[in-house]
Specification:
Blueprint lengths: L7 H6 L11 E5 L7 H10 L1 H6 L2 E2 L15 H6 L8 H5 L5 H20 L11 E5 L2 H5 L3 H12 L5 E7 L2 H14 L26 H12 L4 E5 L10 H8 L19 H17 L5 H13 L10 H9 L2 H11 L23 H24 L14
Parallel strand pairs: 1-3, 1-4, 2-3, 4-5
């Protein structure tokens, strides 16, 4: 399989003469992560028919989900050939170069077939290809990977708009910490530490927005970049979904809303999950994906209150470490603003009291017991155990 990212890529896949089926335009939403992407993708998936009637085609084949329009196949296609250990590729069962070559060919052919099956009420040149995948922001970290993606999409469209929402780095990191715990990480710092004193769980480049926009702008063109700030007072309707539809010239009220998802766990449940993750790592035990999803769902449902947050001075230090990058973005994309972000640091407390881990585990156990009690009661038509009473089964 060639590593070239020019038109030679299509020599390997079998160039499709699809000029009659190309779209006039492509809107590609690349995230970033932790800016309401799941809710947006659920809305796109729930409104595919209505969006097609409005001239926007949201493919099924690029998303490995039944309903969510999260086009992960863009990332599994475009990642470097050497990144076979990426979890998205592992989930797609890609373990060697032959698997990857067949995967790229299958992804391209599936999208071609889906396009050919579109109703011919209007020409595709009058339609817009509408794509969304936040892993484009977080995983495609090399210029060649972005170029490979564009080479792939060039077969299907003539022009682009790259939409990305940016959020203050400390807020993203706090939200990302919750996601890392759900993925199985244990004993990682709440804010990434790049001094070498703590485990590295997310690379610094993830938060370097100037580098991100330079990488994508160099490939797709700076004029194609549609950079938005993820803050209520700058989003149309104060909401990322409404803002995104408004940017497309669509009436947000004309489309079915999707429920907000990916809510954070409370601080107590996060600490309990961290302890569980640590135990699993030390004991060599493993959860199946279904077991982990069940635990997370249960802990999240029992969460009361916000997740862990750093002290204000810690959040400020992390945020200000990206000052040069943020200033470069402000100067290029938001020259009329004094600063890129309203940091919101005043929302962080001066000091933070961490809950005791044993107390958190006890709270989690009692909460899970209550859930099991209700499930067993429903299954047996019995009454739930009184609050605080442990279930026993024979």
């Amino acid at each position: 399989m060639s590593n070239l990212v020019s038109a030679d890529l299509w020599d390997d896949l079998g160039l499709w003469d699809g000029s009659a089926h190309r779209f006039g335009h492509c809107v590609l939403h690349i995230g970033m992560e932790k800016t309401g992407t799941t809710t947006l993708q659920d809305m796109l998936g729930a409104n595919r028919t209505a969006l097609l009637e409005a001239g926007y085609f949201v493919p099924n084949t690029l998303a490995p989900y039944a309903k969510r329009a999260n086009h992960e196949r863009l990332t599994t296609f475009a990642l470097s050939d050497t990144k076979l250990s990426d979890d998205l590729r592992r989930n797609a069962k890609l373990s060697n170069e032959d698997d990857l070559a067949h995967h790229r060919e299958a992804v391209a052919q599936a999208l071609r077939d889906e396009i050919l099956a579109l109703p011919d009420t209007v020409s595709n040149s009058a339609r817009t290809l509408l794509l969304s995948n936040e892993h484009c922001q977080s995983r495609l970290t090399e210029p060649d990977e972005v170029r490979r993606l564009k080479t792939f999409l060039d077969e299907f469209t003539e022009s682009y708009r790259i939409v990305v929402y940016l959020r203050p780095q400390h807020d993203v990191a706090v939200s990302l910490y919750d996601q890392a715990l759900k993925a199985g990480y244990a004993d990682i710092p709440l804010l990434p530490d790049y001094s070498g004193r703590s485990p590295l769980w997310v690379h610094r480049g993830f938060f370097d927005y100037a580098d991100l926009l330079e990488r994508w702008g160099a490939v797709f063109g700076r004029d194609a970049m549609d950079v938005r700030l993820y803050r209520r007072d700058q989003l149309a309707g104060g909401d990322v979904v409404r803002d995104f539809l408004d940017r497309l010239g669509l009436d947000p009220d004309a489309y079915a809303a999707a429920p907000t998802t990916n809510a954070s766990m409370s601080a107590a449940m996060q600490i309990a999950l961290n302890a569980i993750n640590r135990y699993l790592q030390r004991s060599g035990s493993k959860f199946t994906p279904t077991q982990r999803d069940g635990l997370i769902t249960c802990l999240q449902a029992q969460s009361r209150g916000p997740g862990r947050r750093p002290a204000r001075r810690e959040a400020a230090a992390f945020y200000h470490s990206f000052a040069l990058s943020n200033e470069a973005v402000r100067a290029q994309y938001f020259p009329d603003q004094d600063t890129l972000f309203d940091s919101g640091l005043d929302r962080y407390s001066e000091t933070v009291d961490e809950p005791d881990e044993v107390d958190c585990l006890a709270e989690a156990l009692i909460s899970i017991n209550g859930v099991l009690s209700r499930v067993l009661a429903a299954a047996t038509n019995a009454q739930p155990a009184p609050h605080g009473q442990v279930i026993t089964t024979r």
